């Protein structure tokens, strides 16, 4: 929880950047993180065991309460209550430990992304301050001219294709009509 508080504390940008760059690039921290991942695997196994034990103790307690025993012993009830409490405690502790590990990991990567985004923003702010310069205006004008010329060529090409298909259809019609008038029948038609 202390680590989480340090990660989300409102530190100055320079300190936060140094801290997170150290945490993300240090070989020692990487080895510690690897060891923690292995320990969280063991905590996950303990969580599964605690969960299973909690269900088993709860079932035993319910069976003892619904049993056909006429008189319940106070010590037995206390024993079942204590075992149930310990099983639930262990389940909650290991579950919260696993949940906190997920929260810490995600928070660390969110903060790392925030720092990288702030760096990119600072670079963009230095390069042009978001203001369009004269050079970029010239480039935009040139690109618009090229786009207009390309669109005009595309229109001309589409018109040419349309005219060619119309002329081909008219030629086929006239050739068929000519063959009918002269009596020449040919099966050599090209489609």
TrEMBL record:
Keywords: Coiled coil, Endoplasmic reticulum, ER-Golgi transport, Membrane, Protein transport, Transmembrane, Transmembrane helix, Transport. Residues 133-170 form a coiled coil. It is found in: Endoplasmic reticulum membrane. Pfam families: Bap31, Bap31_Bap29_C. Residues 1-123 form the BAP29/BAP31 transmembrane domain. GO terms for biological process: endoplasmic reticulum to Golgi vesicle-mediated transport; intracellular protein transport; protein localization to endoplasmic reticulum exit site. Residues 138-184 form the Bap31/Bap29 cytoplasmic coiled-coil domain. The chain crosses the membrane at residues 32-51, 92-112. GO terms for cellular component: endoplasmic reticulum membrane. It is a multi-pass membrane protein. Belongs to the BCAP29/BCAP31 family. May play a role in anterograde transport of membrane proteins from the endoplasmic reticulum to the Golgi. PANTHER family: BCR-ASSOCIATED PROTEIN, BAP, ENDOPLASMIC RETICULUM TRANSMEMBRANE PROTEIN. This is Endoplasmic reticulum transmembrane protein. It comes from Crucibulum laeve.
């Amino acid at each position: 929880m202390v680590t989480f508080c340090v990660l989300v504390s409102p530190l100055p940008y320079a300190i936060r950047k140094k801290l997170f760059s150290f945490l993300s690039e240090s070989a020692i921290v990487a080895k510690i993180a690897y060891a923690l991942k292995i320990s969280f695997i063991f905590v996950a196994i303990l969580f599964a065991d605690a969960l299973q034990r909690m269900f088993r103790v709860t079932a035993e307690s319910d069976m003892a309460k619904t049993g056909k025993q006429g008189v319940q012993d106070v010590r037995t009830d206390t024993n079942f209550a204590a075992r149930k409490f310990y099983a639930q405690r262990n389940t909650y502790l290991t579950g919260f430990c696993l949940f906190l590990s997920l929260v810490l990991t995600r928070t660390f990567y969110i903060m790392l992304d925030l720092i990288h985004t702030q760096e990119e923003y600072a670079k963009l702010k230095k390069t042009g301050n978001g203001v369009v310069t004269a050079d970029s205006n010239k480039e935009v004008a040139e690109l618009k001219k090229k786009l207009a010329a390309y669109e005009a060529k595309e229109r001309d090409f589409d018109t040419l294709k349309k005219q060619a298909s119309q002329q081909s259809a008219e030629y086929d019609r006239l050739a068929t009509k000519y063959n009918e008038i002269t009596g020449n029948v040919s099966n050599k038609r090209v489609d």
